[in-house]
Design a protein that fits this description.
alpha/beta, Aspartate Aminotransferase, domain 2, Aspartate Aminotransferase, domain 1, 2 domains, seven-stranded mixed β-sheet, five-stranded mixed β-sheet, 12 strands, binds pyridoxal-5'-phosphate
């Protein structure tokens, strides 16, 4: 009889846990060693060399030194790769460390130093690309202009869908088609692997700020990139050489977070749908940005590319920046804080905070606030927003 094909929910619970019974444990072990005893010089040396060049530890050679790789982190990576439908995944100390490593790996692999970046992007990503620190030239463009933005030395195309903060959806397959032979990186942080698998639409690299929905409890910072074995090797090489490995405790928490990801995201999404619908009819709200409401998904990507509209909502206030200040000060159940994707609801002002470093012309307008819908009762969240908007 063939292997049983598991559903997403079952995989989320069981991925990365195949060997636990054999080890005689029920919860995955946490390996905090900063260094590992070496079997002998030759084996230790070959394992070191293998990992420093992006490979796996050699049989019997061990992990050698904790900057190179770590078994607890490797468990999370294996599980996330299964959920994204990729061969491997590589975990970093933050989403931005993951983005940095991806650009460095793309430069090293292709020899190019030009990046095409589809806006809108998370402010930190936009800023990193523009900063000059990675020695890349960047062409920012709209999704339909990717083909025109390509150059002979384009090493990477960067896309975020839904985009932060206004939830624009990008047709991943169309971008991949417009950039033949170029690696397309999709930031899948907002969608999560429950709602979207960019690799199935041709993306070479799938990035998450694991800090958000993957962890889901607002207590861990991390990043991860899923892709082919070849890309994983290139990313691990950068990670080992630059020292950007995820901490094992973060790897443990993120692996644990994956088990409840489907339940959390479905519940958060169900509340977000109710809240976005209610906000759309609110007199103080000029516009709601949410892929689940009419007008926000003109090409029908929800259903075709995303399996649901997600749990992030942005709104444009009729009362402008002054009202944004009043609302963010008046909420009680929502916490006024950056970040997203956790069990508790957050509210923040992108232009002043997450997107502050973005060039003024591309920065979200000052009358927009962003909500991350958590697991509270949606009626309580609605009541909190109602009193804050009053
Ligand atoms: N990508 C998106 C869509 C984000 O929202 C963020 C952070 O907010 C990042 C990347 C960066 O991740 P991190 O904060 O874990 O470095």
């Amino acid at each position: 009889m063939g292997e049983q094909v598991l559903s997403f929910d079952s995989l989320a619970v069981h991925a990365g846990r195949d060997d636990l019974a054999e080890l005689g444990v029920h919860a995955p072990p946490i390996d905090l060693s900063s260094t590992s005893p070496l079997p002998d010089i030759e084996m230790g040396g070959s394992s070191y060399e293998s990992m420093a060049t992006g490979g796996h530890p050699v049989d019997g050679g061990g992990f050698v030194y904790a900057r190179l790789w770590n078994p607890t982190v490797a468990r999370f990576e294996a599980a996330l790769a299964q959920l994204e439908g990729t061969a491997e995944a590589v975990a970093f100390s933050s989403g931005m460390a993951a983005m940095t490593a991806t650009v460095l790996a793309a430069k090293a692999e292709t020899g190019g130093r030009h990046v095409v970046a589809v806006r809108p992007l998370y402010g930190g990503t936009d800023h990193l690309l523009a900063s000059g620190l990675l020695d890349v030239e960047v062409t920012y463009c709209a999704p339909q202009n990717v083909a025109a933005a390509l150059r002979a030395d384009t090493c990477l195309v960067v896309v975020e869908s839904p985009g932060n903060p206004t939830l624009q959806l990008v047709d991943i397959g169309a971008v991949v088609e417009a950039a033949p032979g170029r690696p397309v990186l999709v930031d899948n942080t907002f969608a999560t692997p429950l709602l979207q698998n960019p690799a199935a639409h041709g993306a070479a690299l799938v990035l998450h700020s694991a800090t958000k929905y993957l962890g889901g409890h607002g207590d861990v910072v991390g990043g991860v990139v899923a892709g082919s074995a070849a890309w994983a090797g290139a990313l691990r090489r950068v990670r080992a050489v630059t020292g950007a490995l995820m901490h094992p405790l973060a790897g443990y928490l993120l692996h644990r977070g994956l088990a409840t990801l489907p339940l959390r995201v479905r519940a958060q999404q169900s509340s977000a749908e109710k809240i976005a619908g209610w906000l759309s009819a609110h007199p103080s709200v000029r516009r709601v940005f949410y892929p689940g409401i009419p007008g926000c998904d003109p090409t029908g990507l929800v259903g075709r590319q995303m399996r649901g509209p997600g749990a992030m909502v942005a709104l444009q206030l009729s009362g402008g920046y002054e009202q944004a200040v009043r609302v963010t000060n008046a909420v009680r159940l929502f916490t006024h804080a950056v970040s997203l994707g956790g069990v508790d609801s957050l509210i923040q002002h992108p232009a002043a905070l997450t997107h502050r470093p973005v060039a003024a012309a591309a920065r979200p307008s000052a009358d927009i606030i962003r909500l991350s819908i958590g697991l509270e009762d949606p009626d309580d969240l609605r009541a909190d927003l109602a009193q804050a908007l009053a």
